[in-house]
Every structure is written in structure tokens, then in C-alpha cells.
Design brief:
By secondary structure, the chain is α+β, with helices and mostly antiparallel strands. Helix content is 45%, strand content 17%. It contains ten helices and eleven strands. The strands form three sheets. Strands 1-2-3-5-4 form a five-stranded antiparallel beta sheet, sandwiched between helices. It has a three-stranded antiparallel beta sheet with strand order 6-9-10. Helix 9 runs antiparallel to helix 10. The chain is globular, with a radius of gyration of 20 Å. The N and C termini lie far apart (49 Å).
């Protein structure tokens, strides 16, 4: 859905009565930059569903005290989409450009520094505790601890992949058996997780001393879970070799800021979460009718299973 000037004026009038819209422009990923007559700049972010909008709003409320982090401030919201027909959040301005669009301009040294800053930032974010495991806005899985949440999520994913013909019965049984016998997470509290950290939700800006992270957008997939899920989703989204320095910087920046080894970016600890991610990615590829991607993800899944066996 595309917003019109009149809809943006309605959003502004509801949130800031008496203010007038001076100018606006559409940005990538259903985001709009607006400027009001008083000079303030804001963003409007649309979401695909009320659940995503509710997740983002709850995450930003949890983060409202972290004013020194590159996180937008929530100004107003309509998570049901009653005002314009689409769920939205009105946010403080998010300057900069998508990392994906600026990658070619950033050298490896600067990319490494951006990665370190990203790792430090999310180590801070993961200190915030959620009330429960699962999606902040609307979660169908009920679980009292991380093991219960992961086993329930695995069961759901294996069953769905089987129904779609993405996973044979034997492989599904082997996965279920391994997790039932071996998966013993060390974490005891659900951390706040962005859930969709990638080069299209990371905004960067060039400054005198080099590139900096100017904002982390999105938050529609925010949930309470383990930092390991954040690690695997980011590493997967930046698997292109051009992001290598960013990945290294992220791991170093994160690990240097926590003494909790189970939270650190360690390959063996991440493997179970990578398996869950591959099951998710296979379903997304199926929805997109991308047979090549299904086969690639299935191959990665089998490799991870062999890795866990050793």
C-alpha cells in the first residue's frame, strides 16, 4: 500500500495536532520521510500486518530508555490500521541510507568498524529482558523456557516442511530426535531480539571520521529469545563475501562486550539455531516458488546435521 499526502497529513494531525506537513518523500521498504512546518523531521513506517506493527511498537517501547543507541523513538502508532487502512508507526527521523545501497562505497576497514559498532549495539539491546519467549506482537507458541520454545518451534517447522514436501519423514525424525536428546540452552531469560537484522534494516551515514550506523529500522519481527537467533539471522543475511569484514567486526564487537559464552558468536553454539533458520528459509523459498533456493537451503541443512553429529 502507498500512502498519499492526505493520509500522511491525517497521521500527523492525529499525533501532533496543530502541526502541518511541509514536505514528504517515499523511501525504501514502505517508509516515508516527512518534515513538518516547525522544522522537525519524522518517519512513517508501514507494516505488513497488525502483528508486525505491534511487535515493532512493543520493542521500541522497551528501548525508549536507550537514547544513545541508533534506535528510532516511537512517537505514535496505529497497529490496527484503522486510520489509513495500513498498520503504521510514526517515528523520529532515521537519517542515512540502507547499508545494502551504500556497500560499494565502504572499504573493508570501515565495514569492519561498522560491524563492531553493530555488535556492541546489539549486545546492549540483548540486555533487555522480555516477559516471555516468542513474537512480541502475536505468538502462537506457548512455552515457559527456551528449550520448550525451541522444541515447539522445531515441531511446527518440521511438520510444515513435511506437508510442503520440503523435508522427508526420516530427516524430520532425525532432527526432532537430536533436539530432544541434545538441545540444552544455557540462557534463562528471553532477550529482546530484532529478528530481522539485515542490510536493508541497517542505515548508515558518512561522517567526518568515516561511516557510522545512523539507525536500525524494521523491528516488525521483534521477539523474546536467545541472542543466537540474532546472530544467525544477521550472518545469513550477510553471507555475500562483500560483507565479510562486517561479519567479523560484528562477532568481535559482540564477544568483547559479554562474558556469557553462550551468547557469543561461536559456530557450534549457533548450529541448532541455523537449523531452525534453514527450515524457515525453505518455507520462504517455497512461497516464492524458488526451487534453486529450496535445494540450496536443504543442502545447508544436511551439512549442519552432519556437523552436529560430530
Amino acid at each position: 500500500m502507498k500512502l498519499t499526502r492526505q493520509q500522511l497529513e491525517t497521521i500527523l494531525a492525529r499525533a501532533l495536532p496543530g502541526e502541518n506537513l511541509r514536505e514528504w518523500r517515499a523511501l525504501a521498504d514502505d517508509r516515508y520521510a516527512i518534515a513538518i512546518a516547525g522544522g522537525e523531521r519524522l518517519n512513517v513506517q508501514l507494516y505488513a500486518s497488525p502483528a508486525e506493527a505491534a511487535s515493532a511498537a512493543e520493542a521500541l517501547r522497551l528501548l525508549r530508555g536507550e537514547v544513545d543507541l541508533p534506535i528510532p523513538q516511537l512517537r505514535a502508532s496505529d497497529v490496527a490500521g484503522e486510520i489509513t487502512g495500513a498498520p503504521y508507526l510514526l517515528l523520529s527521523a532515521m537519517p542515512g541510507e540502507l547499508l545494502e545501497q551504500t556497500l560499494a562505497q565502504i572499504g573493508d576497514e570501515q565495514l569492519y568498524k561498522l560491524g563492531r559498532r553493530l555488535g556492541e549495539t546489539f549486545c546492549r539491546i540483548h540486555r533487555l529482558v522480555c516477559e516471555r519467549y516468542g513474537q512480541l506482537g502475536d505468538e502462537q507458541i506457548e512455552a515457559d523456557d527456551e528449550r520448550g520454545y525451541v522444541l515447539a518451534r522445531l515441531d511446527q517447522a518440521v511438520r510444515r516442511c513435511g506437508e510442503l514436501g520440503l523435508l522427508d519423514r526420516r530427516t524430520g525424525a532425525e532432527l526432532t530426535d537430536w533436539f530432544d536428546r541434545q538441545f540444552q540452552p544455557a540462557g534463562r531469560q528471553p532477550a529482546l531480539i530484532h529478528g530481522n537484522l539485515n542490510p536493508r534494516t541497517i542505515l548508515v551515514q558518512q561522517a567526518q571520521q568515516g561511516w557510522r550506523i545512523s539507525a536500525v529500522a524494521g523491528w516488525g519481527h521483534a521477539l523474546g529469545w536467545s541472542p543466537a537467533w540474532e546472530h544467525v539471522t544477521l550472518l545469513d543475511a550477510t553471507e555475500d563475501p562483500h560483507y565479510f569484514s562486517l561479519r567479523v567486526g560484528y562477532g568481535n564487537g559482540y564477544d568483547d562486550n559479554t562474558q556469557r559464552t553462550y551468547e557469543q558468536v561461536r559456530e557450534h553454539a549457533l548450529a541448532p539455531y541455523r537449523i531452525l533458520l534453514m527450515l524457515d528459509r525453505m518455507q520462504h523459498a517455497y512461497a516464492a516458488s524458488d526451487i534453486g533456493e529450496i535445494d540450496r537451503r536443504r543442502g545447508v541443512l544436511k551439512g549442519l546435521m552432519r556437523f552436529l553429529d560430530t
